[in-house]
User: Fold this.
Amino acid sequence: MKQVFTNAQVLVPGATAPQPLNVTTDGDRIINVSEKAPSPDRDNIDCKGAILAPGIIDLGVFAIDKPAFHYGGVTRAALMPDQSPVLDLPAMIKHNASEGKPDLWSHPLAAATKGLLGAELAEIGLMKQAGARAVATGRSWIANSGIMLKLLHYCRSLDMPVIVHSEDSGLTANAVATAGETATRLGLSSAPASAESLSIARDIALVRESGAHVHFRQVTTAQGLDLIRQAKAEGLPVTCGITPAHLFLSDIAISDFRTFAKLSPPLRSEEDRLACLESIRDSTIDVISSGHDPRGPEDKRLPFAEAESGMAGAETLLALSLNLVRDGYVDLSRLFELLSTAPAKILGVEAGQISKGFEADLILIDIDAPWQVDTRRMAAAAGNTPFDKLPVQGRVRAIYKGGKAL
Assistant:
């Protein structure tokens, strides 16, 4: 069925602001973006002046949580391999790829090693045939450099990006916070922020050796971002991401032993947080994702050291990220490059932008609509957010997957 989205402010590639355009879709694809008046024989969808943006692609979630994704405008989610069982077999990839259908595109990431133990490569080639578009090390870092180099050579030959967690496990073992004044005052076991930069430096050296594309899923320190910046200047195939939590919260948020602010990697110092914001401004950071990891009371209502890390982030991802536009770090078009276009390129899918030939995954948004984050009313499987009671702006008014309203 052909349909036309009319009376919309459309975010198109290359434009610094939304444009008054009509978007025509045929089935699940965009076939035209223009100023021309729509044909009367097509189904017209009046957007009533709202912003029409590409659906958000959430790169690296830990659960397929359709209510939360729909609330937050997520049309595709790349599922981390840290599942039960681990996504280290082709059958697991096929099963999880169908989990979100028909309301969500689910892209399971292949485990880099068997059981995510870092000791033996998984059946990556077979998992690619089963539908995996990228490989991931999960919540942990591969400490064995020989295994990591073998992984990168293999993924380079398969043309698959490797998504890595960046914390040197020799430094972070048993640590629950970043070393500094807050961790010392609370008496928490901690690791230096350099655990991140050490792991990034090692992996960049192996990228230089192998030529593989590595995406550093969360880079949260000034030292780590400096290394990414230098690697990009050298022309190495590296990209990196971050979550809103590390952009808008520092380790002060764990005061009073707030387990909803216990994350992996842990929250950093205020100086590192400000460095992350500047790295959004200068385009060192390529992707903003939610790190969606809903955790119930059995995982969070525990002493801080015993509680699990993670936050439910999908439904607050857009609203929090819009603060970057209001604060002048990026314009709206650049924000959706971070939320949609760049993740699509990493996954190798024809989505993430409103252009002819791309998937018609679209969202209508009201960037000024006010609401308040409330853990008791969240659509997510669990409401473990450190942003509880925070007033925010920005709501998704409608969501279309493959041109179909959800």
Q: What stands out?
A: Residues 114 and 142 are 12 Å apart (CA to CA).
